[in-house]
Amino acid sequence: MSSQSQHSDLDSSALGTHISSTPAAPMDPPSTSSTISESDENPCTSSSPSSAPPPVHLPLSWPPDATLSLQWIHHLTAAFDWSSKNLPPSQFPSVLPVSVFDTLILTASKILHKEPNCLRILEDSVASTDSTVVVVGDIHGQFHDLLFLLQDAGFPSENRFFVFNGDYVDRGAWGLETFLLLLAWKVFMPHRVFLLRGNHESKYCTSVYGFEKEVLTKYGDKGKHVYRKCLGCFEGLPLASIIAGCVYTAHGGLFRSVSVPSSKRSKGKKNRRISLNPEANGLSLGSLEELSKARRSVLDPPWEGLNLIPGDVLWSDPSMNPGLSPNRERGIGLLWGPDCTEEFLKKFGLKLIIRSHEGPDAREKRSGLAGMDQGYTIDHVVDSGKLITLFSAPDYPQFQATEERYKNKGAYIVLEPPNLDVPIIHSFEAITPRPKHWRKISRGGAKLPCNSREVELINPSGGNKESVS
After folding, report:
1. CATH code assigned at 419
2. Disordered: where is this region (predicted)?
3. pTM across the whole model
4. Which tens digits make up the pLDDT trace of 51-70?
5. The one catalytic residue among 140, 200, 380, 437
């Protein structure tokens, strides 16, 4: 772990501990079997501007034997890092041709679509005795901060698992590089790297908050094709994970039961058109079995009807008020209180929930909940365990002038045996200075002030969504 990042064990005696860290230049990767040797290119280079030649041969090509290697991933990382500092976005195809993109995303999509809605990680008691798990929150296209995180935590390996909680794209200038690098790791180590879906991995969010514009800028006349392929891959991302039988992770969090009372059932089309009105029917927590049966392959999670679980998992937020209630401010998903956290943990034998979804902008208007200045908050402490919100994009958001950003730290969580339910939280500073070419990509769609909370309202009559401050 570098001096730019420090950590704290969060046991029952350290629930209020915040992490202080001192900015420093990135250090060499930890000494593990998966890090780069001195003879290889270090993908985690400084973000200072450079006129150096490409560190690898460009354009990149798919391996002749169609098998990704660690070296290929290092080359991909180094190429993305170099191009972000030396090339305008429109020259991205000279780094990663569309043909290579197509092969990578097709290969990754096949793997992702075969995975269950809720991944079971480290179920084997033997494997869980010598393996660690790194959990990562929102990244939002902050590619260079992701590189530091991978270096600081140690790259994925046989004994180091990674679970990413979604929101890889939007708001930052390098969402495409971020997502593609993680897909490459997924293809290389499909049983060690796990990518969950965030609410921004959707057609609506990417069309409003920057990713679509980024892709069109980088791939030009092939941009629409690349964007469609990314949307198709988003549909295959799993919704949640359970680690070692005791830790639940998801982007937004908990979800409702969608079982339809027998009195509401009918035959034929009428049954398919039932709309679950939460105020009319009441709300109760959903089960892991219901989660496993939800239909996740949708471009935008529905906000009404029978397939509400994906929207809940991606959009819901914790609250200090007891019970379940509609998330009126977002217009989709739920708010759940500490009593619901306790019920969920106890019912399914869990001890910890790690969710993401809220950055410093979202938290500054949330009554009773802590701010996100350290990259994490402990939202609920109940008899059966804890609920933590994790945010991994420091100095957020990238698309604002320096004086308008939140200057928050990012964080990631390490779960180590024998106490995999005791989170070790690492907080880290943003990599600076940032490359300059990101200024060439402006956010498409709605123009929101930097301190506006990402909120969506849904028009019940027309079914349309609009972003509001």
Report:
1. 3.60.21.10
2. 1-58
3. 0.84
4. 689 999 999 999 999 999 99
5. 200
